[in-house]
Design goal:
Helices cover 21% and strands 23% of the residues. The chain has ten helices and 16 strands. The chain has helices at 25-29, 78-82, 101-112, 240-246, 284-296, 320-324, 348-354, 356-363, 378-392, 397-406; strands at residues 7-14, 35-37, 42-44, 66-71, 97-99, 147-156, 166-172, 185-189, 203-206, 220-226, 253-260, 273-279, 305-311, 331-337, 368-374, 410-414. It has a six-stranded antiparallel β-sheet with strand order 9-8-11-6-7-10, with helices on one face. Strand 2 and strand 3 form a beta hairpin. Helix 7 (348-354) runs parallel beside helix 9 (378-392). The longest helix is centred in the C-terminal third of the chain and has 15 residues, at 378-392. The protein is globular and about 80 Å long. The structure holds NADP nicotinamide-adenine-dinucleotide phosphate. NADP nicotinamide-adenine-dinucleotide phosphate binds at residues 164, 205-206, 224-226, 279-282, 284, 310-312, 338-339, 347-348, 373-375, 377-378, 381, 413, 415.
Length: 415
C-alpha cells in the first residue's frame, strides 16, 4: 500500500506588522537570535525560533503574540515577512497534517498558558507589573485607526545654549477617550514617507504626565522628546519624528497610536516606595510617577521616592528647575552629572553606591519597586551597582533579583 506520508505542520511564530511599533524589544530579548528586522518589518525566522516565548511578555503592544499553523515546508520565510503590510489569512491545512517537532508543541503549549517565560537569562527586568498596578488599556488606536491629538504646548526644557534640545510637548485629545497610566507609552506617526516611499512607522515615546493629565482633570498628556541630530556614532543624522515633534506649533495636529505597555507600571497600594533610575529623556516616566505621587499628597499614604537622574550637565537635565523645587521630604533627589565643568564624571550607578545604605533599606521593603529608563548602556552598570549594594550587607543578590522580577518590582525600559 502506498499510504501518503503525514504532512509536517509548524505552529509558526509571526509578528503583526500593523500593530508592531518597531521598538526592538523582541529582537533584544530573543535568546536564540530568531528575530531580525529590515527597514519595513520585525520578523521571526522559522528555522531558528524554538517557541520559548521569552519575547512575548516584554512586547509592549502584543504584536509579537501571533501564530499560524502552516505546512512546515511552506513556512513563511524571513523574506516573505519583510514584505508584509499585514498578517496573511489562516490557511486551511491538509487533513492528514500532523503537528511536527518540539518547537510547534512548545509554542502551542506555551500559548495556552503564557506563564513565566524563561526570561531570567534574557532580560533583567520583570515581565509582570507590580501586584497593585491599575489595569492598563493597550492598542486602543492602531496604525490603521490612529487618533488625532492637538498640540497645546511645546517648549524647551534644557538650557538654550546647550547641545541637548529637549522639548516638553503637550497633546490634547479633546472629547476622544485616551486612557493612560504612568509608565505607558504612545506611538507618533510622523507625516511623509520613508526612503522606500512607504509611510513612516510609528515612533514610541513614554508619557511624562500622570494618568489624570498633564493638567489635572484635562484629557491631555505630555512627552519628553530630544531632537536627534546625530546617530549613536556621532555622525550627523536627522531624527524623522523627534524633529517633527520638536518643531510643532500650538494647534498643530498629530496622529497618535496606542497606548502601549502593560508591565512598567507604578504600584497603587499605600506606602509603596519608588526607586527611579534614569538618564536624559528616560526621565519621562519618572516625571509621570513623581507627579502622580505628588498629587496624592494629603489624600493617600504615599511611600518613599528616591530618584537617581543622570545628565551631562545641570543645564542639559530636562525639568531641572521644577524638579529642584520639589520638597525634600517628598522625594530624595540624586543627580549624576557626567560633563559638568569642574566636577568629576558621575553616572547614576556611582550614586547608587554612594547612597547604598538608603537603597539597601528600601530594597529590604517588599513595598519597593524599581524603575530604570534611559540609555541601554546603563542597564549593566545599574544591575552591578544594585548587586554590590546587596552583597555589601552579606545578602544574596540572585535570590533578591529573582524575587524582584517575579513580583513585578524591577522594570527596565532602555533604548
Ligand atoms: P544622554 O544625554 O546621551 O545621556 C544622559 C546621561 O547618561 C549622560 O550623563 C551620559 O553620560 C550618561 N551615560 C552614558 N552612558 C551611560 C552608562 N553606560 N551608564 C550610565 N549613564 C550613562 O541621554 P539622552 O540622549 O537623553 O538619551 C536617553 C535615552 O532614553 C535614549 O536612548 C532614549 O531613546 C531613551 N528613552 C527615551 C524615552 C522618551 O520618552 N523620550 C523613553 C524611554 C527611553 P556621558 O557624558 O558619558 O554621555
Amino acid at each position: 500500500m502506498n499510504a501518503p506520508l503525514p504532512v509536517e505542520v509548524l505552529k509558526q511564530h509571526l509578528i503583526d506588522p500593523e500593530i508592531c511599533i518597531r521598538c526592538n524589544t523582541c529582537e533584544e530579548t530573543c535568546p536564540v537570535d530568531a528575530i531580525t528586522h529590515d527597514s519595513n518589518n520585525y520578523v521571526v525566522d522559522p528555522e531558528i525560533c524554538n517557541g520559548c516565548m521569552a519575547c512575548v511578555p516584554p512586547c509592549p503592544t502584543g504584536s509579537i503574540d501571533n501564530w499560524r499553523l502552516v505546512v512546515r515546508a511552506e513556512a513563511y520565510s524571513v523574506q516573505d515577512q519583510f514584505g508584509w503590510e499585514e498578517l496573511p489569512q489562516e490557511k486551511s491545512l491538509p487533513v492528514d497534517a500532523a503537528v511536527a517537532g518540539d518547537a510547534a508543541q512548545q509554542a502551542a503549549g506555551a500559548q495556552a498558558e503564557p506563564a513565566a517565560a524563561p526570561a531570567m537569562l534574557v532580560t533583567p527586568g520583570a515581565a509582570v507589573p507590580p501586584w497593585s498596578a491599575a489595569h492598563p488599556y493597550v492598542n486602543l488606536y492602531t496604525h490603521k485607526t490612529p487618533i488625532t491629538a492637538t498640540v497645546v504646548g511645546n517648549y524647551r526644557v534644557t538650557g538654550a545654549d546647550t547641545e541637548s534640545d529637549i522639548h516638553h510637548i503637550v497633546l490634547d485629545f479633546g472629547e476622544q477617550p485616551f486612557p493612560v497610566l504612568e509608565g505607558q507609552s504612545i506611538g507618533i506617526l510622523p507625516p511623509g514617507v520613508d526612503a522606500m516611499g512607504r509611510p513612516h512607522h510609528a515612533r514610541q515615546y513614554s508619557l511624562a504626565s500622570p494618568r489624570d493629565g498633564e493638567r489635572a482633570g484635562y484629557n491631555n498628556l505630555s512627552l519628553t522628546v530630544k531632537r536627534v541630530t546625530q546617530d549613536h556614532g556621532g555622525e550627523a543624522a536627522h531624527g524623522v519624528c523627534s524633529n517633527y515633534l520638536c518643531d510643532l506649533a500650538k494647534n498643530d495636529t498629530v496622529q497618535v497610536i496606542g497606548p502601549f505597555g502593560h508591565t512598567f507600571l507604578m504600584p497603587n497600594h499605600p506606602k509603596a516606595n519608588l526607586i527611579m533610575i534614569c538618564t536624559g529623556t528616560g526621565s519621562a516616566p519618572m516625571r509621570a510617577m513623581t507627579e502622580r505621587s505628588r498629587r496624592l499628597i494629603g489624600t493617600a499614604d504615599i511611600g518613599k521616592l528616591m530618584l537617581f537622574f543622570g545628565a551631562r550637565t545641570e543645564r542639559e537635565l530636562p525639568y531641572f528647575g521644577p524638579l529642584m523645587k520639589l520638597p525634600r521630604d517628598f522625594i530624595d533627589i540624586n543627580l549624576a552629572l557626567s560633563r559638568e565643568p569642574g566636577q568629576p564624571k558621575r553616572y547614576v550607578q556611582d550614586l547608587l553606591l554612594e547612597r547604598a545604605a538608603q537603597v539597601r533599606g528600601l530594597l529590604a521593603d517588599r513595598n519597593t519597586c524599581i524603575y530604570v529608563c534611559g540609555l541601554k548602556g546603563m542597564e549593566v552598570g545599574v544591575l552591578d551597582a544594585l548587586r554590590e549594594v546587596v552583597v555589601q550587607s552579606g545578602e544574596d543578590w540572585s535570590i533578591l533579583h529573582e524575587a524582584l522580577r517575579r513580583e513585578g518590582r524591577l522594570h527596565f525600559e532602555t533604548y
